[in-house]
Amino acid sequence: MSLDLDISTDGVLTADTNLVQSWADLNALKQSGARTVIVSAEGAMVRDSEGNELIDGIGGLWCVNAGHRRAEIIDAITEQLNTLDFYSTFYNFTHPTAAALAVKLAELAPGNLNKVHFGNSGSVANETAIRILHHYYNRLGQPQKKRILCRHGAYHGSTNLTVAMTTPGYSEGWGKSGEWVHHLRCPHHWREAPEMTEAEFLEALKQDLLDTIAHYGAETIACMVAEPIMGAGGVIVPPEGYHAEMAAICRAHDIKYVTDEVVTAFGRLGHFFASKDVFGVQPDIINTAKGLTSGYQPLSATIMSDEIHEVISGPGGMFFHGMTYSGHPAAAAAGLANIALMERDQIPQRVQVTGKRFEGLLRQLEEFDIVGEVRGSHFMMGIEFVKNKETKEPFAPEEMIGLRVAREAQKRGLIARPLGNILILSPTLIMDEAMIDRVADILKESIAALQSSL
């Protein structure tokens, strides 16, 4: 039986009046033509309700790494639902797919990260890491170690705690639970410290961490949480050696280092995990979601070290944490099939080549007067637009430059994500050279069109 849905533009938009979109200007969505209805997808493409074929330049939302409508993943989900549709991993219960996926993630994760707790979103994975570390230090007799070090420019989620961990602008006008959170300096060399060399800026960032530890006391700090490359904060790549240096300082002060790989894992930077392979850091916990199932099912994982697990699993305590759908059978089946597909097709290895082509072509966009910086790596790229290239003066928010470029791109067949004066590209990882070249051409045409209208 198939769902009897009206997929016409008018039909969907009429029904959509009952849907509250996420991370949107809800008032602006009331205007005619403000919403795009996506009705189908295949490979690297999606189709809207008007019949337009569009390159999915944002990979759903940083997540459809293996591409849309992959039969291997769909069939695995269907088979699982026909075998065991649901059972929880609470109490003493487990099931084959969650157990098998935990084994696979332990195999792929670096070092001694062998213990996996499943959730259903990146926000949940990040909050789980904090709950685990607070419990860990409580069991070690150090209940005062609660503080969380994050960074300006970070994005870690949308729960009350994880939005507090996120850069402050994302909670403007909202409440948050931020009494434990301190934000370190943003590691964006081009914007934050152009007068310094990158090496000098790295020393300044290290000193900021040391000063923060001295101010609060290491005995009060549980962890530092950092994305290898900042995502929704604007695709910010830290200076060379940043993560290894910051982790070394944390380790010297008994502060755990947590990498938020919700976006950067599962091939986006050419490896299943980027922390060690790309950035040379061995974290104590890796949090991941999105590309874990390529978006086919909601699933996240908090992958912790054996040492942390040994403490929290010792006698005399209970693990009071978990979600109803933690390790959902269908989601775990999707994760296993997604990883198997990526290994079979060598998608991470391909990204090491195709992603660099994508990155190189996008960096050529800096030839435009309104493009201040193109940054990122492989299939995780950001383009920042500026009013004055010499002074780096930004456009006023009301000029909506990112949105206007995104609209120009969509008219030409590409979905890109506007973020203020930044345009973000995080496409599926299966684009071939011809499609990569087409994306670059569309962006050139779109930026040229917008620039000529200013």
Overview of this structure, please?
- With 454 residues, the chain is of the alpha/beta class.
- Helices cover 38% and strands 17% of the residues.
- The protein is built from 15 helices and 16 strands.
- The chain has helices at residues 9-15, 59-62, 71-83, 96-108, 122-139, 160-165, 189-192, 198-216, 242-252, 275-279, 306-312, 329-345, 347-363, 401-411, 433-453; strands spanning 38-42, 45-48, 53-56, 113-119, 147-151, 181-184, 221-226, 256-260, 285-288, 300-305, 371-377, 380-388, 393-394, 414-415, 417-419, 422-425.
- Strands 4-10-9-8-7-5-6 form a seven-stranded mixed β-sheet, with helices on both faces.
- Helix 3 packs antiparallel against helix 12.
- The longest helix has 21 residues, at 433-453.
- The protein is globular and about 65 Å long.
- It starts with 8 loop residues before the first helix and ends with a helix.
- The mean pLDDT is 96.
